[in-house]
Design goal:
Elements lengths: L9 E4 L3 H7 L5 H8 L3 E4 L3 H7 L4 E5 L8 H4 L4 H9 L1 E12 L7 H15 L4 E5 L3 E7 L9 H10 L11 H5 L2 H13 L8
Parallel strand pairs: 1-2, 3-4
Antiparallel strand pairs: 4-6, 5-6
Length: about 200
């Protein structure tokens, strides 16, 4: 999807080359073509090592990972990793991550879990936006306005960039950031200040 637009480069980091090899025969043609796009580079490395050893700066880092249910995965949700990732972001760059969430209920376990991630991100980034849902997404940046939960602002940005998608329209921002639920979730995450920072 990203390669449909005039981006300069896209780096895709995957630790397991077999995952790509096994999937290629089943990918739609446009996805196979994307892997051959000159702007796209595929790196078969551990993501944390890639961030630690790299020198490239990015406008956005998207962590498309399972929940931190093991020590191996949790390495990507820690204070140290967020600090390392921030060093690889451009000054107005954005980090995106997510965990399993809930649309309508923030029970004790989910609340502590989500609050830990939220407060860990806040130790590193000045601005955090949270999108509630069955997958709760966190958008972190240092520059004011780089991230927003205002559906109107996001719709204007979307339209100004000339994005055309069969899957997403400006209206979808109202579903991604329902004002009352977004405000409730942030209030609950802010309220739980006794949670541990993930180290």
């Amino acid at each position: 999807e990203m390669l449909k637009y005039p981006i300069r480069m896209l780096h895709y980091v995957e630790v397991d080359p077999l995952l790509i090899e096994a999937g290629i025969p089943y990918l739609p043609v446009q996805d196979r073509n994307a892997l051959a796009d000159k702007r796209m580079a595929l790196f078969f490395k551990d993501g944390r090592y890639f961030i630690q050893q790299g020198t490239q700066h990015y406008d956005m880092i998207i962590l498309n990972l399972p929940d931190p249910s093991t020590a191996m995965l949790n390495r990507f949700y820690t204070l140290d990793f967020f600090k390392e990732a921030k060093k690889r972001l451009a000054p107005d760059g954005v980090l995106v991550t997510g965990i399993t969430g809930s649309d309508t209920y923030l029970g004790r376990e989910v609340g502590i879990y989500a609050s830990s991630l939220y407060h860990t991100l806040k130790k590193v980034f000045a601005h955090i936006v949270v999108a509630p849902g069955t997958r709760t997404y966190f958008f972190a940046a240092d520059v004011p306005g780089a991230v927003s939960s205002d559906p109107d602002i996001l719709a204007r940005r979307f339209e100004s960039r000339g994005i055309q998608s069969g899957y997403f329209t400006p209206y979808h921002f109202t579903m991604l950031f329902p004002r009352e639920r977004s405000a409730f979730l942030v209030r609950e995450l802010e309220r739980q200040t006794a949670v541990q920072i993930n180290t």
